[in-house]
Amino acid sequence: MPKYSEQDLKYAAEFREGIHREALAIVRKTRPGVTEVIDRHPVEEYFQENWEYPGRWYTIVAIPYGYRSRKALVDAIVRDTLAGKALKDEPACSQMLQGKTKPEPGQRNAESQSGAKPEEDPFYALIAGYPDLALDYCIVKEERYAGCESHRKALKTAFERLGGEWRGDPGQAAGKRIAVEELFSAEDRDGKLNYRKAFLCPPHGNSCTAEDFERVNKALFPNGTGELQAYEWSTDWSDYFDEGREWWGTLCLTVYDKTLGRFAVIMASATD
Q1: Domain ends where: 83, 118, 148?
Q2: How many domains, the chain?
Q3: Which of 110, 190, 198, 217 has the most CB atoms at less than 10 Å from its CB?
């Protein structure tokens, strides 16, 4: 192992910490209680030796050997963390549950209507098949629906469950009711970020199709969209949305399904 200067190690440690923050943000979407990630690579492995013509070696800070991209390294750290001792028994509340099998559509509907707790809803098992989404989902049960205030309450509950180091006060969010047609409108409508665009067109891209979008929403709203009430919320009330404000966009939605007596809270914020 080559000897590195203290300054070199400092740069590598800062680079490695950035990788860890990125991986931890993904892990916390599923396990909010996790506070650190598992990385099999010590800081000394965050260097690469390069040969410069006509004849000298130089060192750069980079991802460890064996990974084709930064994303591949982040994905590996996420997998190791989810499989390792960093996991805590927290309610799942987001886009990715590793190791779950995808239930059949009939099974989803039956379990969703059987009184299962929101954090146990089979929707989370389905969404596990889409780990590269830029969306956070949270299902919140509502016993006594009271219009806009119930939507705000659901937003607060989801924000608390999603956890992380984000700060914010959902009580400061400004909400407006939107039509169901607008909720599911085309991704290029008005040139701004909406639900469909956030699903299909994240900053780093993904393999999702319009069919995937329909499949996910059929599981999220198994009884159709006729009894949905949707609110769109401002995104200036939390630093969760800071990254999205850089250029890609931000999204905050609460959707009440009268047939199930529950909310689907959908949030998005990402950058390159």
Answers
A1: 83
A2: 2
A3: 198
